[in-house]
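Quick illustration, no need to memorize.
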Amino acid sequence: MSSEELAVEGMVLYASPVGESDKRLVLLTKELGKITVFANGARRPKSSFLAAANPFATGRFSLAAGRNAYTLRKAEIKEYFRELSSDLSTLSYGSYFLELASYVSQENLSGTQELTLLYYSLKALLSENFTNTLVRRVFEMKTFVIDGEYPEYSRMKLSETAAYTFSFLVNAELKGLYSFRVEESVVEEMGRVLDDYIRRNIPRDFTSLKLLD
């Protein structure tokens, strides 16, 4: 790697076509937070970026810095999360996680926590131990905790289990975040709280949620 390049660890949140053969990517990285990267020639059949320049691709990216964006020079992908595409509902949840992560993430700030949460949550979606709806609510709550503002659940009339679950999510380490299961009625209770919070605090619609609805 030349002295003009830098290496980051991250995940592709978004990819869109540019010109005849290129792609514009949005990456969430540990080192730089959310960044824009151009993958030249990524849409060509024989491009070395053909698989790497897609949402969910996770690994190490070598970049060249430009004035307003970066250019992809090399990608070493360790996880593509291709299994998500085997079920439309699961894929929609995963895509929603990317959308929400992109919304809350910032540039030039470490994205380590957000990236780690996203990785564990996508893995949880692929696990038979959790329902997609539970993973969604865990991901939403912990995303807001990391962002610094989250529902004031302690002031709400909640069941003891729901209140305890919210408290656990606020304080749990990311590595042990998906270590519990609760009844669907508790997940629904959490959903009402989080849906109301999102409706009041996030002024945008998420395309992936429309597919789920």
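The mean pLDDT is 94.
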